[in-house]
Amino acid sequence: MMIRRTRILLIAAAANAAALLHVSASSFDPFSVDSLLSAAEQPRVYSSKDSGDRAKALTEYGTAASFYHQYRTEAAEAGDRNAEKDALACELDACISANLSEQAQKLLDEYKSLYADTAGSSISLWQAEIFLIQRNIDKADAILKVLLDKIAKSDPVRLSALRCAALVAERRNQAQTAADIYGEIATSSGLKTVLGRRAAERQVLALGSIKRYTDALKILASLPVASSARDVDAMKILRFYLTLKEKGLPGVGDGWNAVREVETPFKDDLFYLVASRISEEYVALKEYRKAIEAGRLACEFATVREDAMEAVHNLIYISLQLKDTEYAAVLSEQLLTIFKDSYLSPDQKLELAEVFFKDHRSSQALELCINALESDADNKESTYRKALALAMAVSDFDSARALIQAYDTVPENTPLRDLDRAMVLCNEKKYDDALVLYRKMIDGGSLSGEVFRRAFSGAVECFGKLNRKTEALAWGRQLRSRKKDDDTVLLFVALMEEQNGNLKAALDDYKEYAENSKAPQCAEALLSAGKLAIRLGNNEEAEKILSRLLNDFPESPLFEESSYWLVYSLCAAGKDVAAELQAWSFYRSHPKSQYSCEALLKVARFYAGSDSQSHAIEPLTRLCEQGDFPEIRMKALSLSVKLYLRQEDTDRAESALSLLLQSTDDPERLAEAAFLSGEIARSRNDFKIAAERYAKAAELAKGTVMEQAAQGAIADCIFAMASYRPSVQEKSPSDSSEQTDASSLIPSYRQALEAYLNLLDVRDLVPEFRAAALYKAAVSAELNNDDEQAVQLLKRLIALLSARDAALHPTETFWIARGALRFENLAHKDPALERVQAVIPALIWLNNAGIISSETASQRINALRKKQYQPLTQEFAKP
User: Which uninterrupted H or E stretch holds 303?
Assistant: First the structure.
């Protein structure tokens, strides 16, 4: 899959003799200016002019320009002013056709100084053509608009001006405009003329590109029967392009085999353009192999250097799509060999260097990058940055260092280069070495402004990667003492204080930064301070800080997040009305914000856990109806189910659960839905169905807390079935004594006890679940007439938690308190010495936890003493 090197070498050899926009005045080239001018034919008295005309007819425009220059010299020597003017015009025409823009511009400037009064519109047209060669489309377009408005439709120059305008439209991808202009040229010239036929072909190409296939095929069919091999091939390749565009691969069949055999000696840029469009179409269809074939054909058809270069670039792009970096690199080498460095811009060199980097040809890539640097005096820093990014993109750190070294030639730029060296070290994950370099730069004390901030930011990143928070904080404090006016350092110190757990100090630093700084990070500091205040339980201060942020920085990207945390702080402070008003105001102004939906959900949760549960209904209803954030909607539906269950409205709970099940296929959500379904069944006293649904939840949530909760709920259902006896109203009239004997099928307290004991054997059981399971297992043992096992279980329950930590663990404390009461009742039931002595620690625990007073504990112990069989030797010790 290689480009035919000989063909491209021919293109390179003929680069100066190729036509970009201008074609011969002979029958081979109807687009030239002189073929359309109505000036009288000059008598052919100069052999050099005849030679120039013959070279021009063969499209050897560079050679023609040389002969015309000789013609001009001979005319000047002969004193033939008319011939001299004609020779200059012929040479200028030939240079434009040869794509020699600099030489053409010099000749045009000379022509304007000598013949400006007599040249008329030709000078403007020449200038537009030169601008087109230089790819200066805007200037060419401006000239052509004035020219076309000024010249009459009968003026022969108009057709050449229209041709240039069509080329401008093509360059700008304005296919409809190009099609209209080519249509005007074809109509004016007639389809039987070469000029008209070529214009119609270009019109077909333009219409095909905008999918006007019927119109394009109609024009193609209206063309006279092709009389040359070139026209036959043009019809063939255009028809294939239209078919491929309209019908895709199935429509063209084997047509591509015929197209790629086109070998006409009269190729012009139409063939290049069509082959390029075919290649693009194959790329769009992801037929990259065929796209490469078409791209190679376009390369062979290219008649000017720029088109040939573009064709090879396209081949490189397609090769990279195929991940064939080796072929892309070979093409890049050929491009460099054929077109030389002088024809490539610095950006084009970097594009080729990127290919070499991807193919692991570091030396070639580096050489090309340095070459690009040397050839771009005006934008060296930008070119250097691009080159460095290319090396870093493929983790070629050695090449990156070499680039830095090559560019580090100016002493005042050394800090910037050191930043780059440190950046390379960070990408190599050599954070220790990078930190040493960053600190050396910063501790030297000479850095300021953006360079200091970049170095400081790099050091911060290294400290974070190395997890050296304590050292970072010490360094930051030291740096802060030296740079008291640098708020950037203060912000870093605040962050380090926070990461080191010094929350109060961090809060003070954030507040100080926010008070003194006007930088964009001020809003970030206020948000951090507000969140820290919430963590410290100072919700009033959080409210003030976050309110200031919202008032002072309404356009900040942090506005929405800050609004959420303000609602959070209001809820935490118990300001339910203010929180609700703020949440609704935020939601109405930002209904598509995730944070506003989260704020509403926060308010709903607050009310759902309060005595004002009805206030949670409206925000939950709104959140259940929104579809922008499915996760929030599912949370709202889940909370709705739980809320309705608390209100004993099982019908609405079931309706919300149904919506939840329709909204997800996520296993975690399905497990939660199964659990909630069990809750609904349990609230209806249908414990058997509830247990089955909890079992399904446990199966879906293997290895999670949800599984533990489901196992505990199953045990609760077994306990409930052991305890539950239908009321008279629930009994069916058909119940018989035989059915009553079926009570043996009802689970027993022994089964409940086993279920709780199984849960207690679970590894990493949640502490709250363990406390509840121990208490319920003890109750089950007692009801199963096994008081001794109940006592042992209650002892384990009391030992779960130290009394001094009771306030931090309210759930465990609740179950231990209930367990202590149960334990006391067991002691009263059987006041043996061992049991009374065992219950005393439970009463002491309640006293130390602040649940009962010392006096109450003493009274309850004395009550037990009166029932004991033997005197107590252990006295109650006050804490």
Answer: none
3-class DSSP assignment, residue 738: helix
Q: What is the pLDDT of residue 348?
A: 81
Cα–Cα separations (whole angstroms), residue 490 to 231, 435, 479: 76, 19, 9
Q: Is 457 helix (H, G, I), strand (E, B) or coil?
A: helix
Q: Give, in degrees to the nearest 5, the angle at Cα 592 between 587 and 598.
A: 55
Of 41, 37, 65, 39, give the one whose Cα is nearest residue 51.
65
Written as one letter, the residue type at 122 is S
Of 232, 158, 143, whose CA–CA distance to 188 is shortest?
Answer: 158
Cβ within 8 Å of residue 92, ≥6 positions away: 104, 107, 108, 111, 126
Q: Let me know: does 376 contact 413? Beta carbons within 8 Å.
A: no
Residue 773 DSSP one-character state: H
Residue 182 and residue 146 in contact, taking contact as beta carbons nearer than 8 Å? no
Residues in the chain: 879
Q: Are 689 and 697 in contact (CB under 8 A)?
A: no
| CA–CA separation, 281 and 258 (whole Å) | 17
Candidates 500, 499, 489, 554; CA nearest to 526 is 554
Give just the sign of the alpha carbon dihedral 680, 682, 684, 688: positive
Q: pLDDT below 50 — which residues of the chain?
A: 1-42, 728-744, 870-879
Q: For residue 563, which of 574, 538, 588 has the smallest C-alpha distance?
A: 588
Pair 585, 555: CB distance under 8 Å: no
Q: How many alpha carbons lie under 13 Å from residue 524 in its C-beta half-sphere?
A: 9
Q: Is the dihedral of CA 156, 161, 162, 163 positive or negative?
A: positive
Residue 340's pLDDT is: 64
532 and 498 in contact (C-beta within 8 Å)?
Answer: yes
Max distance between CA atoms of the chain, in angstroms, equals 150
What secondary structure letter does DSSP report for 409?
A: -
pLDDT tens, position by position, 774-801: 999 999 999 999 989 999 999 999 999 9
pLDDT at 632: 92
Question: Looking at this protein, which amino acid is placed at residue 410?
Answer: V
How does DSSP assign 239-251, residue by residue? HHHHHHHHHHHHH
Start-to-end C-alpha separation, the chain: 91
